[in-house]
Every structure is written in structure tokens, then in C-alpha cells.
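User: Hey, quick favor. My workstation is busy. Could you predict this chain's structure for me?
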Amino acid sequence: MTGGSPQMDALNDRSREVFRKLVEAYLETGDPVGSRTLTRGMNEKVSAATIRNVMQDLEYMGLLDSPHVSAGRIPTELGLRMFVDGFLEVGNLTQDDRGKIEETLGSNAADVPGLLNSVGKALSGITSGASLVLTPKHEAPIKHIEFVNLAPDRALVVLVFADGHVENRVFTPPPGQTPSSMREAANFLNALAEGRTLSELRDVMKREIAARRQQIDTLARDLVESGLALWDTEGSGPDRLIVRGRSNLLTDPADEAELERIKRLFDDLERKQDIAEFLELAEDGEGVRIFIGSENKLFSLSGSSLVVSPYMNADRKIVGAVGVIGPTRLNYGRIVPIVDYTAQLVGKLISDRG
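Assistant: No problem, here it is.
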């Protein structure tokens, strides 16, 4: 991984070495790193006092922080980002890790979600973090759409696909809906839907609503527009996001602040509401991406890091993603190739199974 930053450019060789060794030591132990620890591994013989001065400069630049009253330092989010972009050495996938991943994908699970569930378990076990696997959404053409009123604040949309697959999705409709407006909304959608997948329908809906705004009853239009996000994102159901290995995040002794961070992360994972954003994180760039702390839109409040990679179907279209989430002191150099290889194998599996 390579990259430059103003902070990186401002460092001399000694500062870079101190910074790199400090972050590596922190990622290994999770503890603040002191100057005496660093003196033992420096390429040139320097005093602890000299290293302390360098550490103070790095802290002033926003790359290091002093937790509590400790004499040691830990990297900040900015420091971790600079380390990942400029110093991280990504290791090769070990034969042991490769074998565990391949063994999982060779399981006899009859359905894709079942097989991806096994992948999630293996990924969390190998990395000792929590794994996230976003399964592909149903991409068959739509045959029919129906709205059913359940209560003033709850409605059901029934999606019938050309391959016989049926999905029922509960959502909150705009207030004031009537049987008439629901019929009109369904008729409007069915006129557009036949032969199109959900993804294609969503794009067409936006254009048609804009073009025919005056022709569509206001209530029906509100119902269709309120479902725009539903059709292609959250409507794909929270079950699309498989989370495994939460307990791995509790294996290390943690202070009260760390436990609170993990609790917030658990709450985020439990809600699973933002699976579309999870896929967006992967779609924004090819290959493995690393999100540290507040860079991560989904879990920013929990101060966690996410390593994520998309996987593609036979048409080279991104249909899902795999990732590992854990504390910011993840072993990035080892986890990156694991996530990358898993995503490639899952993509091949999805392609082979159609």
C-alpha cells in the first residue's frame, strides 16, 4: 500500500522510523508504546530522550496521542490512516488460512446464503474479528407487485418474480393512504416493472415519476416515492447482511471505555439497517478498502475499523461484499489478503452457481 500525505512529507527518516515502529508495536500489543521500547529496535543507536522528542513532534502533528497519564503513545486515527497508506506491508496469505477458506467454500450447502453463512463463520474464526458478508440480492425480473394495507402505519409490498420467487416486505407508508391510492401505485409500478429487475425498476421509477408528476395521484406518488429506497436497498432485507463472530470482539480484557465502544458496535450490527451503505463502501473502489474509525460511515461512533472487499458475478457486476470489523488495532497486514482472497473465491462461487 502506498500513498502520500502532508504529514508524511514533513517527516525525516528518523521520524518515519520511530512512527512506523511505534504503530507496529501498538498493533501487536494494543498498549501505549514508550520511548525505551523503541530504542531497542532502532536502526541507529539513539537515546530515549531523542525518541521522546520525536514522539512529541509526532503528537503535535496529530499522528500520536497520549492516553490518560501514560508515558507511552498510541496512534490517532490520522496516524493509523497514514500508516496504512504509507507503511503497511501486506503479507502473503498463509497456506493454513488459504486452506481454511477453501475448505469452507467447498462445503455442501445447497443454497448460496447457507454457503455464505459458512464463509462468514470461517472468516471470523480465521481473523478473530467479526465478519460481515453481504449476500447477493434477488436479480430475477419482476412479474407482479401488490400493496396490502396492514395498519395505518404499516403496509406490505408483495414482489413476485418471473422465476417464481416471492418476497413480502413490510414498510411504513406515507400517511393518508387509501385502497384506491394503493391500487394506483401498484398499477403504475406493474406497468413499468415487467421484465425488469429491482435495480432497473428503481432507475426507471425515478424518471417516470419526474416525467408524469401531474398524471399520478399525490397519495399514490408519495407511496411510490417512499418506497424508492425500499426497492433496491433496505428492502433487500436485513437478512442479506450475515454477521458472525461478535464474541471475538470481547476476548481481550477491556476497560470501561472499550466495553462501551464494543456495545455501540454491537448495537450497530444488531440493527443492520444500512446494508446499502455497506455495499457502497465496497463499490467506491476496486479491491480491498480499509476504513478507520470515523472514516467508516456505518460504524463511526463505535471507533472500529472495517476491512471490506466487493465480489462480482459472472457479468463482472458487484453484487455483494465481505468484510472484517474489529478494533482499530486490527492486524491489517494479515487481514487484507484474507478478505481479498475470500471475496475472489465468493465471486467465483456466485458465478459458478449462476
